[in-house]
Amino acid sequence: MQDFLQQTLSGETPQQLSGENAHLRWSWWDEGIIEFTPHQATQQAIVVSAGLHGNETAPVEILNQLLTQLLRGEKALVPRLLVILGNPAALRQNKRYLRCDINRMFGGRWQQYEDCPEARRAWRLEQAMETFWQAGDNLEVCWHIDLHTAIRGSYHPRFGVLPLNPREWPDAFMQWLGAAGLEALVFHRAPGGTFTHYSCEHFNAASCTLELGKAQPFGANDLSQFAAAKQALAALLSGEPLPQSGEAPRRYRVSQQITRLSPAFKLHMSAETLNFTAFPQGTLLAEDGEKRYFVQQAREYVLFPNPNVASGLRAGLMLVEDNAHNEALSC
């Protein structure tokens, strides 16, 4: 196999299902799922996923460039690695999803949806992740990096979203996020149906959703904007020193979620509202029948505003700054 992305987009089963080179063995598990195992023993196991939304193509292209180097034997590999292209059918059509948003379905939530390609795929991805991590004992590093791009522009073009986690985040993981060029980190305080929440909750993985710029079709991405993330991924896989990071990411935590409850939902933000736009206390953010969403803190920042989601799904998150941490950064 020379090009994992092109093979996945073809929709065909590869003629060769496994192989090896001087550094590693590889094994094709299923459409868009491939495992790499270094020849030397390792206590590190890393999942890197991309393409859960089929119109978010830049991370897929970056990841494929790194995989091509591994498949050709041009780069060494230190951890066991599982690579997942989450929604190949949507990637082929440059659509966010075909029927339902797969990144709301994990943790068994796919059972609550009608039978559709995304529900079946979410189940398959859960199985793949379980198989991968159950194969390792006493892992020192258990990470899941999920690569995305955002629908809207942002005051922080590159940021990470971390799931609810009752444990301390590993220092090495947080350092890696900074080296990947992230300008902000957002910490969830409630469970959710995302792939990263699933891996964190069920496998104690250090997990993060990386938002790397704005969604563009294949061929329309300026991949130079993602150089830091690509370099950090390459260093992680090969065991090389991380690139020098700039300022540590600013930290935010979720203060409230805006949920679309019915077709009457109205989001009081324009289509041009950027992620991390600030709103003062008392601002009416959205309404849905009798339900009203207001800014509750002195200042809150919006993330992922989207009035076009299905009823029952998140139409936006409101954030507050982690002032103690951010003030320490400026000292």
Can you characterise this structure?
With 331 residues, the protein is an alpha/beta fold. The chain contains eight helices and 16 strands. It has helices spanning 4-10, 58-71, 88-93, 117-134, 171-179, 195-203, 227-238, 323-330, and strands spanning 18-20, 24-30, 33-38, 44-50, 80-85, 141-150, 158-162, 184-187, 206-214, 250-259, 266-267, 278-280, 284-288, 291-294, 299-303, 314-321. The strands form two sheets. The protein has a 13-stranded mixed beta sheet with strand order 1-2-3-5-4-6-9-7-8-10-16-15-12, sandwiched between helices. α5 links the parallel β7 (158-162) and β8 (184-187). The radius of gyration is 20 Å and the shape is globular. It starts with a helix and ends with a helix. The mean pLDDT is 91. Transforms N(2)-succinylglutamate into succinate and glutamate. Zn(2+) binds at residues 53, 56, 148. Residues 249-321 form the AstE/AspA barrel-sandwich hybrid domain. It is an enzyme of class 3 (hydrolase). Its EC number is 3.5.1.96.
Give the helix level as a range of percent.
25-40%
Characterize the biggest β-sheet. 13 strands, mixed
The total of beta strands comes to 16
The value of Rg in angstroms is 20 Å
Task: Figure out the total of helices.
Answer: 8
Shape verdict: globular
The low-confidence parts are none
Bin the strand percentage: 25-35%
Order of strands, main sheet, comes to 1-2-3-5-4-6-9-7-8-10-16-15-12
Q: Specify the structural class.
A: alpha/beta
